[in-house]
């Protein structure tokens, strides 16, 4: 090395990476210190090649790994194959160009930093064995490592354990964990700049949902047709069972984007009858779109220590969708739904996010169909004026039959709304003209298969006899 890295200076103007440049400027401003830059020769806020080199070394060590300077066994085999035109090329980016791109400096500065780092990382053992490539040597190549989000996976596992084995209500550990996992949710965007928190309803692409309910006899189905708002909408609190996004006794609205998806989600038995109906979303609701979790693109600087934490958070969130929407066996629902129920409650009550629902892909469908759960506060149904209506169900049984609902004007008192919540806004409206009856004739399963290996083991004791 033909220069002293402690006496060669680079000013913040010669560093294109914004975070690193601002850091150099702000540090020197506190010291009211200016020096002549060794590259642009202006008197400015500067840092030594040694200091910026150490900063770059730390960043590369945390986010990159040196690739092998030799082909692996398979690549060697390809090279030895006389009929193959394969030409081995080392993976990754050469160190000088990596420094050039990372720091946004000139090639001259990048080369000086590389020389300093190579000299720093060389040892006597490498001088004795010159064939061994050192870290940051001029020939070395680096490739970016993928964040695994292990820190957040551990937090999530502890969260699940806490909910199953400790307090489920007033659990401060659960709330603080969810706060950390979803930190900054309102500012997260996908790589094509779509926000994770989006709006559905009026003036959006998602203006309605379908809901399904199965019946095993005509009498119960008749009651639903007579009172569709109460019996086809979200159940009254007293009848509300636990679901993926709600605890028992908390009434929410589960809907789907198609009738087929709505039917498949309730898993009706063969021979049962299912009513489906469309509900219009009459307000603008804020929802978390889980479909975009695996498309989050973190924005920031690799030189920012906080950004490393954000990268790991995003790595975890990309896998969180599968954890939340993975199929759960009926026998395991009581425990396995605890975590997703806690997530839903956290999102609904959070003072900043204030989410009205969660949109997630259907596990019962292989295409782009989705479900949308609308939380309790936003799931109130708009009731038609009942004081003028009476409903009768007429059926005609022959080779075919028709179900008809007749409305007759009556002068009666206003009917009680079973789900009335004075503080809540009516956000959903049923379209009674869209009600369809479906008879479940069969169910088609999608599955994978594996053979079972059956082996006979000869007992040695029998051989001795």
UniProtKB/TrEMBL annotation:
Domain RES: 228-387
Protein name as annotated: RES domain protein
Classification via InterPro entries: RES_dom
Highest rank taxon of the organism: Bacteria
SMART domains the record matches: RES (SM00953)
